[in-house]
Input
Amino acid sequence: MFEHTIIAISTPFGFGGIGVVRLSGKKSLEIAQKIFTPLGKNNDIKPRTALLGTICDPEDDESFEQAFLTYFPSPFSYTTEDMVEISCHGSPVVLEEIVRIGIKHGATHAKPGEFTLRAYLNGRIDIIQAEAINDFIRASSLKQAKISYQQMDGILSAKLNAIRSRLIDTLSQIEARIEFPDENLNLSLKSISLSLQKTIDSVKKLIQSYDLGKSLSEGLKIAIVGRTNVGKSTLFNALLQSKRAIVTPFPGTTRDYLSEPIKIKDSIFTLLDLAGRDKPKHPIEKEGIKKSKQLARKSDAILLVFDCSQKETQEDFRLVTTHNTKKTILIFNKTDLPVKMNIEKMSSLAPNRTAVRVSALKKSNINKLRETIYSEFAKKAETDQETILHLHQKLLLEDILKALRSGKDMLGQGHPEEICAEEIRGSIPLLNQLTGDIRSDDIIKKIFSRFCIGK
Ligand SMILES: Nc1nc2c(ncn2[C@@H]2O[C@H](COP(=O)(O)OP(=O)(O)OP(=O)(O)O)[C@@H](O)[C@H]2O)c(=O)[nH]1
Ligand SMILES: [Mg+2]
Output
């Protein structure tokens, strides 16, 4: 338990219908009672029951607000400590005054995320649940909120605990073989290896879920690539349904890049409009093309645009054949004009890619393109699949996978079982770090720095 009692406004800054100030710590009720006077006859403070009263600084004796006070005695509170919530009008000056007099009478101002940090350090939630609470508040789509909601409930933590239990089980089997080599323990290496493979598969699935998590939390980056003047910026605007990018009939219009979020159904993407790929006529264009190549390389997916009112060129051939490693959709634009491009031939150069014909100018087939972007790039959330949303979780899982794979390979190659067990055992502290059973100060600092004050 912590020494200090903390106080903060828990509702967002600004004017609102209501505002809430929270206190957490041993002196919560004592401090609240100094500044809150119940109204009416029945003025007992009952746990988890709102009580109406007035607020004033006892040294001034002049009330300035009516409010409801709710008391959550330890351990049945968000932080597991004694907590008090004061709900009043959403007036920033009034809320700040309540905090000020709370501090004057013994409370300390809470740091960002300190209520949740206390819930974690007091053992009510693990680090995955703590991070999920912040993800839930900041979710940009309902799908992301639903995943975070499940994680707050402990579904991902339960999955990781199951992985850890299975691993400990496998390790004890290996150890039994080492300790009692002569006994017929019926623990064949094959069954141990099979159980390891199951764990490896679960970890792999979690790592793969990061793509979905990323597309939900920040949106997969989709770069619009093509020669100059093929209509990339027009398409960018059509997809955004806003005249965001400058469009002109002159090649080389887009030089610096533009980046905007778009929402398709329940998924968010980040769309990038880049400089066209042709011979630069100006040093600025040259810089733009260099940047365009870098950004396309770093993006998660590509919309490769062609002007089908023109005959295909060497550059078009080069583009279609070089963009075959990433998720790509081929877009044949300007279908409102007579078609001169051999679309079949161009498509056949990228047989595994989906092609869509559009007119960005007339906005025809743009909905079809949105559908295709969604079906090609937005991974569907299987409702029963646990999803990881953060890179630091993915990196830890990758280290776990490495240790497990290497342990399994060594076992298969006939290395001494002690050494294999040691290798596999290396993954347990990493799992503990992932759930926060082993505290990594760096990760804790990073996670809680993203929280707002009052949460
Ligand atoms: N007819 C027709 N014209 C289009 C279409 N899409 C774009 N254009 C025209 O093509 C010209 C170039 O369009 P932009 O959107 O600026 O092309 P861009 O690929 O962004 O060009 P850069 O930024 O120079 O690489 C403009 O005159 C657009 O109006 C289309 O679907 N049909
Ligand atoms: Mg452009």
